Amino acid sequence: MKLELPKWYDLHAHFRQGDVMPHLVRDHLAMGCAGILAMPNTAPPVAKVFENDDLPYWSIEAYTDMLKKAGGDKFSDIIVPLYLTKATKVAAIEAGAKTGILRACKYYLFMTNGVFRAMEEAGVVLCIHGEEHGMAAENYFDRATNAEEYFYRERLPRIVEKFPGLKIVSEHLTTKVAVDFVRSAPATVAATVTPQHLLYTVGHLLQGLKHHLYCLPLLKFEEDRAALRAAVIAPANTKFFAGTDSAPHAKKVTECGCAAGCYTGGIAPQLYAQAFEEAGADLSPPSSRTPKAEGSQDSRGDSSSQAPRNDSHGFRAFENFLCRVGPEFYGLKIPSETFTLEKTPQDVAALSVGGEHIIPLPLGMKQKTLPWRIVQ
Ligand code: DOR
Ligand code: ZN
Ligand code: ZN
After folding, report:
1. Per-residue pLDDT tens for 83-127?
2. Does 19 qualify as catalytic in the annotation?
3. Which residue has the CA at smallest separation from atom 10 of ligand 1?
4. What is the three-state SS of the chain?
5. Binding pocket residue ranges, ligand 1, CB within 6 Å
6. Fewest 10 Å CB contacts: which of 35, 72, 214, 323?
7. Residue of the CA atom closest to atom 5 of ligand 1
């Protein structure tokens, strides 16, 4: 089975800085990415728009340049969100939006100084890591509730109400509560979903303590994964889109035991395809589907016996999730260039940079091959 798809945008990924950056960029180009949204949690963070602002941070101008020099000039678009701090000024939002360099901001603190209003007016997207800060451990991750559910019950509804024109991306959803909120929210609210949150639950993380699966927000339960899967495979999905949160860490095992983040550079469409199939989607593209008379064999012979049958719109839903909903939300052009996914096993290899190793998520899960590969 071969799927020809428009090149896609990874609308949430981490490209870090320094020597590792060209390797991360190369992996993203190799997986058919037309463009990226590169998160600004670098050191220092990307917390000013223009290089000539005198705040002690990196600027969107400079970080975009670094990405381009690292091979990112081959992307047709790069969005770097502004890391919001207490020093963020309304004037910077207005000026940044006017030049077109500022298209999104990443929210880590609650802003009350007019910044959200300025973003709303300038059409700048708010990217939210939706977890309540500073909760007691017993509430942060409990059977009855957790930091994400609290955020989607108590915080985000207020922001949406107060800023009805503000475009919001709820990043890396992990709970049914968040999925339900996004689905019932106005069209200004959409969400990214990572491969790991579609593939796994907290049980996979804990069974054998698979620290490569440790990311934030933490994986949740089967009910939550089912809600995420249902949201992305729905044929009428207009809100849920690809954002891998690919987050490389050379040393997953740190002094404190772990660093949060799963590396999925180079293999994300493959993992998303795997997740869609596990969710029951039939990914065979319309042209390759053969009408089945009673008792007849599928012309492709092998796959019909295993292929799930409950979603004949699977391919369209997959293309929609990976290639259309996100760029439409951000107002990006859907590329005419394509890339191809093929249902043939692919080996996964570690990424080695300067003597350090970044372990892609499947390897960390002791999975050495993927059911899908990208063919150039
Ligand atoms: O797992 C995560 N890793 N979650 C985040 O929010 C940040 C990211 C990173 O930068 O490593
Ligand atoms: Zn985050
Ligand atoms: Zn992230």
Report:
1. 999 999 999 999 999 999 999 999 876 667 799 999 999 999 999
2. no
3. 247
4. CEEEEECEEEEEECCCCHHHHHHHHHHHHHCCEEEEEECCCCCCCEEECCCCCCCCCEEHHHHHHHHHHCCHHHCCEEECCEECCCCCCHHHHHHHHHHCCCCEEEECCCCCCCHHHHHHHHCCEEEECCCCCCCCHHHHECCCCEHHHHHHHHHHHHHHHHCCCCCEEECCCCCHHHHHHHHHCCCCEEEEECHHHHHCCHHHHHCCCCHHHCCCCCCCCHHHHHHHHHHHHCCCCCCEEECCCECCCCCCCCCCCCCCCCECCCCHHHHHHHHHHHCCCCCCCHHHCCCCCCCCCCCCCCHHHCCCCCCCCHHHHHHHHHHHHHHHHHCCCCCCCEEEEECCCEECCCEEECCEEECEHHHHCCCCEECCEEEC
5. 14, 41, 129, 215-216, 247, 260-261
6. 214
7. 216
